[in-house]
Amino acid sequence: MAEVLRRVLSPSSAAGPEEENTAEAGPPLLLLCGPGSGKTALLFAAALETAGEGRGPVLFLTRRPLQSLPRGTGAALDHLRLQKIRFQYPRSTRELLHLLCSAHEARGPAPSLLLLDGLEEYLAEDPGLQEAAYLAALLLDTADHFSHRVGPGGGCGLIVALQTQEEGDSGDALQLSVLQRYFPAQCWLQPDAPGPGQHRLRASLEPGGLGPRAEWCVAFRPDGEMTVTPWPAQAGDPSSDKGSSSGGQR
Amino acid sequence: GVWRHGWRLAGGHAAVCGGGASERDGRGGAGGGAKLKFVFGSSAIQALDLVDRQSITLISSPSGRRVYQVLGSSGKTYTCLASCHYCSCPAFAFSVLRKSDSLLCKHLLAVYLSQVMRTCQQLSVSDKQLTDILLTEKKEEA
């Protein structure tokens, strides 16, 4: 789902004909961050973006209902899109597992995007390696099943947000490396030095060999509005043609 | 690193095992087997054995969702996901996940071989039964 995140993060480069990857879901993506970052807002922005594509609904899984809807990037909070986002709140790992294992039983249109916020909370209940792998694998399997139901020309994307520990131990590192093996694409959110009244993040997208690496600055104003700008390219950095819409590598 | 490549290598099983399968022609042809063994170690021989013994079953339900079950040499049944690398066996947890000694366990390798060779049992179950199979695959009870 690197493409959706990329479109969320660079709306200007999404203008113009989206040839290859419009309906393709792209690889599953792991959104990694420290505490207190804007991962939920980014996930929600991805949900709104996909909900506006005219395909299936978006399934947003999170442990607790969002206290308030994140502001997003401008005009995207339209009600038609909101109606296409289905929230479910599995309160435990067991409930989440049951939801994923029974996903094929539900009828109706298959989701075009599956989002999970707060994987770390579910992993904390059952921190074994096999349990973590099983949860990751089931998420992939569920998205894969939805993709098959959607049929050719579509697909169901998967974005999972995981908060990592600042000072993890080697067990955490091993668990993270196991999870990373299931998610070809990853996006790291790192806090940036805040400006006045702002909370800022550096978002680094590694699309897993299926596109160029790219970086953005994601800023949250005090009123919650999220703005995204390309991260200033370093001198000699080859991955900086985000603005070009002339069909560069995507 | 090699692990990322390893997942894709195993995922692109046709590319890796296709040559082996065509050279194998039934039970003859050691060429393919040697290649498999080079890449996958001793799991390869055990995996081929599982295939030969028709130990792999592809289970599907009316929803179209599928899962594999493999009858292990010990008589225990393990569950392997169809869409990505996961097996409920202890060797997967230990050698693949924890130690990173292996790319696959023998059950997963057997599943991929049976896909390439187009030989496995098929079983249809209800949607509900498939849910139960997926729910209990988490860990094989001792």
TrEMBL record, chain A:
One of its GO terms (biological process) is double-strand break repair via homologous recombination. GO terms for molecular function: single-stranded DNA binding. One of its GO terms (cellular component) is Shu complex. Residues 1-27, 225-250 are annotated as: Disordered. It comes from the Eukaryota. This is SWIM-type zinc finger 7 associated protein 1. It comes from Equus asinus. The gene is SWSAP1.
TrEMBL record, chain B:
GO terms for molecular function: zinc ion binding. It comes from the Eukaryota. Keywords: Metal-binding, Zinc, Zinc-finger. InterPro entries: Znf_SWIM. This is Zinc finger SWIM-type containing 7. Residues 78-116 form the SWIM-type domain. One of its GO terms (cellular component) is Shu complex. It comes from Equus asinus. One of its GO terms (biological process) is double-strand break repair via homologous recombination. The gene is ZSWIM7. The keyword Transport does not apply. PANTHER family: ZINC FINGER SWIM DOMAIN-CONTAINING PROTEIN 7.
